[in-house]
Amino acid sequence: MGYSTELKNPQNEQHKFRVRLVFLVLMVLAAFSALLGRFYFLQVARYDYYQTLAENNRISIVPITPNRGLISDRNGIILAHNFFVYTLEITPAKTDDLQDTISELGRLVEISASDLKRFRKLRAQSHTFESIPIRTHLNEYEAAKFAVNRFRFPGVELKSRLFRHYPYGTLGTHGIGYISRINEHDLKQLKENNQLSNYKGTEHIGKAGVEQAYETELHGITGFQQVEIDADGRAVRVLSSASPTSGNNVVLSMDAKMQEIAEQEFAGRRGALVAIQPKTGEVLAMVSMPSFDANLFVDGIDFDNWNALNNSLDKPLINRALKGIYPPGSTFKPFVALAGLESGKRQPPFTISDPGFFTLPNSHHRYRDWKPSGHGSVDMRKAITVSCDTFFYGLAVELGIDRLTDFVRHFGFGEKTNIDIQGELSGLLPTPAWKQKRFKQPWYMGETVIVGIGQGYTLVTPMQLAYATATLANNGKAIQPHLVNAIVNANSSQVKQLPHRIADQLNLNADNLNIVKLGMLDVTRPGGTAAAVGANAGYDIAAKTGTAQVVGIKQNEKYNEKATAERHRDHAWFIAYAPAEDPKIAVAVIVENGGHGGSAAGPIARKVMDYYLLGKLPAPVDVPEASDSPITTMVEEEEHD
Amino acid sequence: MIRKWVSQFIRHIDSILLATVLTVLVVALMVLYSASGQSLAKVNAQLVNIVVMLGVMLLVANTQPQHIERIALPAYLFGLALLVAVALVGDISHGARRWLNLGVTKIQPSELMKLAVPIMLAWYFSKRETMLRTGDYIVAGVILLAPVLLIAKQPDLGTATLVFAAGFYVIFLAGLSWKFILGSAVAFGAALPILWSMLHDYQRRRVEILIDPSQDPLGAGYHIIQATIAIGSGGSTGKGWLNGTQSQLDFVPERTTDFIFAVFAEEFGLVGCSLLLLLFAIIIGRAFIIASQAKSTFARLLAGSIAATFFTYCFVNMGMVSGILPVVGIPLPLVSYGGTSLLTLGLSLGLLMSVQSHKRLVASD
Prior knowledge:
heterodimer, A: 641 residues, alpha+beta, Penicillin-binding protein 2a (Domain 2), Beta-lactamase, 24 helices, 23 strands, B: 365 residues, mainly alpha, 3-stranded antiparallel beta sheet, globular
C-alpha cells in the first residue's frame, strides 16, 4: 500500500474513474427524468390549461360594428344617416411622445385649436388604450399624405369610420336627438343592461331624443370575426365570422316640412311648438327654439361650441317642448270650463255680469279681469271667446281646487304624457295636499281663484298643453303622444307599425263639449281674442290664446307691455285644433316674452295648420338641401372595409 | 488507392455515435424549417454548418489523442491571452464585453475555452505520474478558475458556468475527494447570499423571473411564459410538423436558436420529447462508454468531460426552455441554428471518436 500512494496504478485508477462515471450516469438519469417529468406535467397534466392559453394567444375576436339605422320623417325624408370619413386617431399609450407626435402631425395635416381642445377633452374621459380622434373629416389628399408618412407616427392611425350625420343640421334636433361618444356613464348603463358585448367596437350611443330612446332598435347587432393573429397582433387569417345585423330604420311621425315651417316662423324668437294628430297621438312637429346643430356632438363637441351652447341665455340645449314649464295662463280656461259644465256648476243659461274684477266674500281684494271695464254679460261660451277672467275666478272658487284639479288631470295636466323620448317634465297641478307637503303651508282660497285662469302655481309643458288640446279635440279620448310611427327592418324592409295607445277615455257630455268647442271656435272669429288668426283660413279653427306672466304685477299697478324689459315680458300662448268639425291637427305654441298669444303665437300655429290642411307653403319655403358637409359617400347599404 | 485512403480515413468513425448524431440532425433540420417560417435558405445555411461540423469531426477523429495532448498548453494559454485582451480592449455589446475585434472578423474567445479548458486539465492530470495530492487540485483549480472568472466578468454567466462545468468534470473524474466536493457545496450554499449581492441587476432579475415568470409577463418573463405555453399546448402527440401555433405565429422567441426546443415540443408533443431525450441519452451513454474504455488518463478524462458537458448543454437548455432552470442563453446541441455551436460539437465528437478508435488501434497493436 505504501508505494501505491506514490505511483499511479493504472488498474486502480481506471476503477476509480469508472465509479465516478457511474455517479455521472446516475446524475444524467436523474436530470433527464426530471425533464421528462416536467414535460409530462406541461403536456399532459396541464395540457388543457396551456392549450387554452395558446388559443387565446392566437385567436382574437374582432367586433364588426353594425350600421346604425336611419331616421326618416313620416314622408321618408332622411333626417339621420351614416357616411364614411377618414379620421386621424392617436392611442396615447402607444406614442413615444404625445406632444411631439401632435406637433409633427400638425405639420402634415391641419390641426386646429378646436381639434386640440376636443382631443384633450376626450382624452380626459377615455381609457389609456383607446384611440382618440385628433382630426376628423380628412380629405383624400390629407389621408394620402398621412398614409405615406405613417411609419413616422407610431400610435397614430388613419381610420375610415362610419359617421352619423344629420343632413338638416339644426332641424328638429330636440326630437331627433343625437349620438355622441360612449362615456363611463353609458358603459355602466350598458353593463347593467347586459349590452356590453353588443357594443364592442361601437363608439357612439344615442344621447338624446329618438336617437337615445330608440337606441336598441337603431344600434343593431354587432358581428364578430375570429381572427388568427401573430405575436405582433397582425391578422394572419380569418377563422370564422358572424355578420353584423344592421340597426332598424326608424320612421318618425314628424313631418320635416312642418317642422321646418314652424322653426322658420319663430323667426329668431325663443319658444316651443308641438303639433299632434288628435286621433293617433302622432307628433307632427316638435319645435324648441333656438335649436342647435346635432352634428357638433357626433365626434365630440369642441370646447368653444360647447361653451357657446351651454352658456347661452337662450338655453338652446334645453328641449322647451318637454322641459320648458310655464303657467298655462288663459289656455287653461277651456279645461276649467269643461270641469264647470261636467260638474253641473255652470249650466246654460248661467251668466254673470262682469264688473272687471272678482272679489271673494268678506274680502276687499280685487282679482282683476284683463279688461278693466269688464265684459258685461258673459255666459260660458262667451267667457271662453273673450277670455273673461272674472267668469273663471268665480267658477274656480265654486268648483273648489280639488274638484278642479281632479277633472283636468284627465287631460294630462300635472302628469307626464309618456311620450316615447326621455326627459319630459310633468309640470304642476297644485293641490292643498301638494302645497302642505311642499311649503308646509295651508291652501288659501285666493290661490284657487287664480288657478281658474291658469296662473299661480300651475305649470305646464308645451307638450302637455298640445296633448290636452288634442284630447279635447278628440272628445276626451286621450292618445299617448309619440314621435316614432314605425320601425323598418333594414334587411327585410319589413315595417312594424307602432300601436297607438289610449291613455285615458273621458266620457264627456256632448252638449258640454259643444259649448266649449263653440267658445273656442269663436276665438278665431271676429270678436274673439285671435280673430286675425282665423281670418280667411278656409277652414274652421278652434283656439284659445293665453299669456303667462313672467313677473308678478302688484295690486293697482298696470301692466305695460312696452315698458317692460324684453325678457320680463309675458310669454305668449296659443292652442288650437282644426278643422274644428273634424280635428286633424292640434297645436300648442309658446313664444317666450312674446306678449299677447293671439298676435305672437297664433300666426305660427296658423302657418303650420295651413301647411298641414291645405298644403300651403308660406313664403319661399322648401326643405333645404343637405347642409355643406364633407359628405363624399352616402351609405345606406352594408359596407365594410 | 483512393478507396483505400477513404476507408483508412473513415475507419476512425464511431458508427453508433455518428448514426445517432445524424438522426438528431435530420430532426433538427425539420424543426429548423418549421421554426424559420419554412425558410429553405436558413436550412441550407445550417446544412453548410453541418457539413463543416462533420468535416471537423472527421479530421479530429483521425488525429491521435497524443497530438491533441501536445496542443493542450498552447491552446489554453492562447485562449487565456485572448480573454485578457477582451477584458482590456474588447467590444461592448448589450452591456457586456465579449467580443474581440480582429479587424477582419470578431471572435468570442470564451467559446474556445469550452474545449481548451478541459483539454488543458486532462493534460495536466495525465502529466502527474504520482498519485494526485491536494497541491495538484489547487493548481487545477487555478487553471480552471482563471478563465472562468475572466468570462464571468465580461459578464457572461452562461458561458462561465459551462466552461466551469467542463473543467470541473475533468477534476471530478480525476478523483477530487468527496469530502472536498461536499465541503465546497456547503460553502457555496453559505456564500450564496454574498454571490447574490455580486450579481448584476439583469442577472438577478433573470433569477427572480425564473422563480416567478408572471412577475414580468410582457417583459423578461414573456419568453419563458410563451415557451412554456408552446410546450404545454403541444400535448402528448403534438400539433404536427409546421402546425405549432405558438411557433408559427411568432409567440415563441428566439425560436431557431435558444428556444428551438419549444418549437419541437409544440409540434411533436410528449412522444417527440421522449424520443429526443432518448437520442441524447444514447449519445451521452455512448460517450460514457468510450470514456470508460479509454486507456490513457488524458483520453478518459477528456472523453468523460465531453460526455458530461454535452449532457449539461442538453439539460440546461431544455430545463431553461421548459421553465425549470434560469434563462442563460445557451443553444440546444445539434438542434439550435448556428455555426459556432456546431463547430464546437464537431470538435467534441471528433475527440470522442479519436479516443475510441485509437484505443482500439493501441489495443490491437
